[in-house]
Amino acid sequence: MHFKHLVLLLLPFILLNCKADTIPLYVGTYTSGDSEGIYKFDFNTETGKLSNRQLAVAVENPSFITYSPNKKIIYAVGEGQSSAITAFKRNDDGSLTFINSENSQGKGPCHVNVNESGNKAVVSNYVGGTVSIHSLNENGGIEKAPQVFNHNEAGQKPAHAHSAQFRNDDLFVSDLGRNRLYHYKLSNNTYTLKSESIVKMEGNPGPRHFSITKDGNFIYIINEYGGSITSVKKTDGGFEQIDHDSTLDENYKGPNKCADIHLSKDERFLYGSNRGENSIAVFKRNVNTGTITKIQNCSVHGDWPRNFTIDPTGKFLLVANKKSSNIAVFNIDPTTGKLSFNQDFKAPEPVCLLF
């Protein structure tokens, strides 16, 4: 066979293999500066390179974004003029098309999560201190919230709901203002309060985000004000605290606000972001007891790492540095869990990364 004919025959397979190494990364931003909304990059899962930046949709302050289970819909919230959760349809070219918006029933929505069935979304309203639960219809559209929980109490400091996660029939909500991780339980399609806090949070740590193991037996809470992670274990009667660890290097004495937290794909390691120290704290996790030990504080090669994520292969960790307007990519050592800097890319005020 002539070489030219062989190349033409193999070209579709070559292109398919090249495409298989590239996956989309959507980036939520603040739009007060150069940003216009949600951006899409191509991410190479072999090299860690980001390329082909495009504006997926223009929208005000999409500061947190998440997928529907089938990844056909992206839901966004943001601290804009209107307090809303918005649904967008993903198109074949990577762009997003507006479906609808619904009032989030509280000021300053900062986080959204969708349940495994894809029929409910929960929004955490930071300024309002409320949590709204929305039904989602078959085309991904958002319905008015049939349930809204208000964590504010008369005579107490303001509530600041910061993140929430569905897990089977459980709903957990981290409230930074009330220093609690609320636990709600689903029964007859309605959520009711199971516990005002699964563990007692001493002082004013400011629980912000949390990560749950796949078996549901351990929860790791990152504390914004405390610069720490509270480790919690599920028991027969509820939950108990098993560990409490600083996220900061022992030599760092400056101001700091923790932000995000994620387990590695194999759950042997835990990562948390420090805004101020501008680092990712790396912890080795005992998979039997659930306790953690800090093994590294890695510079984020930028300023103010609000959010980070691990790519689907588990080989790379990507950090959204808000103030320096860049996304830093790190290699994850599969044996030690430690990070090493790979490269970084410009992005306007990135604050949320979604694979």
TrEMBL record:
SUPFAM superfamilies: C-terminal (heme d1) domain of cytochrome cd1-nitrite reductase (SSF51004)
Entry GO CC: cytosol
GO MF term list: 6-phosphogluconolactonase activity
Keyword Secreted found: no
Signal peptide: 1-20
Superkingdom of source: Bacteria
One of the GO biological process terms: glucose metabolic process
Record field: transmembrane: none
Keywords carried by this UniProt record: Carbohydrate metabolism, Glucose metabolism, Signal
UniProt xrefs under PANTHER family: 6-PHOSPHOGLUCONOLACTONASE (PTHR30344:SF1), 6-PHOSPHOGLUCONOLACTONASE-RELATED (PTHR30344)
Name of this chain's protein: 6-phosphogluconolactonase
Naturally occurring in which organism (per UniProt): Algibacter pectinivorans
Phylogenetic lineage: Bacteria, Pseudomonadati, Bacteroidota, Flavobacteriia, Flavobacteriales
